[in-house]
Amino acid sequence: MNSIQLRLNKNQDRRLRFGHSWIYSNEVDTKVTPLKGLQPGQAVDIVSHQGKWLGSGYVNPHSLICARVVSRDREHPLSASLLVHRLKIALSLRERLYAKPYYRLVFGESDGLPGLVVDRYGDYVVAQITTAGMELFKAEVVAAIEKVLKPKAVLLRNDSQARVQEGLDQYVEIGSGSVPEMLVLEENGLKFEVHSQYGQKTGWFFDQADNRSRLSRYIRGGRVLDVCSYVGAWGVQAAALGAEEVVCVDTSATALEMVESNAALNSMSERVQTLHANAFDCLRDLRGEREKFDVVLLDPPAFIKRRKDIKEGTLAYKRLNQAAMQVLAKDGILVTSSCSHHMSQENLLQQVQQAARHNDRFVQFLEQGQQAPDHPIHPAIPETAYLKTFYLRVLPAF
User: Fold this and answer.
1) Residues facing 53 on adjacent strands
2) What b-and-e string marks burial along 57-75, b requiring 16 or more CB atoms within 10 Å of the CB?
3) In whole angstroms, what is the distance from residue 350 CA to residue 194 CA?
4) Does domain 5-71 have CATH number 2.30.130.10?
5) Given 255, 330, 357, 363, which is the most exposed site by the fewest CB atoms within 10 A?
6) Which of 378, 311, 319, 370 is nearest to 345 (CA)?
7) DSSP state for residue 100 in the 8-state scheme
8) Active site includes 248?
């Protein structure tokens, strides 16, 4: 056991007993275990108000989530060997699911490694550390990845905004080996390139892979608008699946350059166009120009990152879907996503329905997707279930 104990307030252990791994600062008995005396990332044993051992993990007194449980086995706290063991368990799932090494290998708490994300791009690995506790184990993380995967290189994309909340610096550095400027991946039979040290998250959104594969039945022969396209994951695949024309819209000129590059990589340049614009402005202008599309794809960034964003973010989802319907053909398909945990499936569908009624349109719900299985959901941690994608038919009002 660790020498430092973190004692919880009375009746604050129920969530942990059910399997959750987060401890909030207001759940700690600070009279017995003052948080101010602890260092960010320090190893602790979490005990109930009655003194019963609940698990071991690490603490950060400066964060709202002041501690995270890593192990419920007294003999195996967070260590180099535990990292290797958890990576092997994570790898066994992905190798069962995927024929090629292009996926998320570690999804934080869902793989028993809170504060760590690891993505595979063939022979290269991109990792992201978001908590002070895992930051202290940075060298061990890299060593474990090398031992389990034997990659050509490990890149640490520790530039996430989540690190600011933990009081950590943001940086990008090579953990081992030599990382090329461009990383190559394969998805649904196509090849894509992403910049290794720039771009969003770790460079690619593996969580939408299965949802993108569903496009085939809706796309063929149509005109497609891909809003918030990033580097063309949706749009280029739509073109490859038979769309006659795809227009990719994004606020990042760099991302749109990658769209063009990825379209060329897959011999789809003639079918894919780019438009540098804000999503809302673009949809407004297209409506004014009376442009119509058979399919509109919406995969925006999270509009609701915290609870206090719910009201404003909910309105943003409604406005975006409303604007998308205004450029849809009379019998069009809307594929709309939300990666905001705080936006429930029911609420997102409600906002889509309200947007449809505002436009005097009728919506048919066809099917629903969620995050791919390389982003497994932890049943006790609802925050790990965040992605929802709806496939909708939008018609004139009945």
Assistant:
1) 47
2) bbbbbbbebbbbbbbbeee
3) 35
4) yes
5) 330
6) 370
7) S
8) no
Q: Which helix (H) or strand (E) holds 233?
A: helix 233-240
pLDDT digits (tens, 9 = 90+) for 306-322: 889 999 999 999 999 99
Q: Which CATH number fits domain 199-396: 3.30.1330.60, 1.10.1060.10, 3.90.1150.10, 3.40.50.150?
A: 3.40.50.150
Q: Can you read off the two tokens belonging to residue 312?
A: 């404003």
Q: Which is it for the CA torsion 48, 49, 52, 57, positive or negative?
A: positive
Burial (0-12, 13-18, 19+ Cβ within 10 Å), 157: buried
Give the pLDDT confidence of 264-278 residue by residue, as tens digits: 999 999 999 999 999
Active-site option among 66, 228, 282, 339: 339
Structure tokens at 266: 């897959």
Record the pTM.
Answer: 0.94
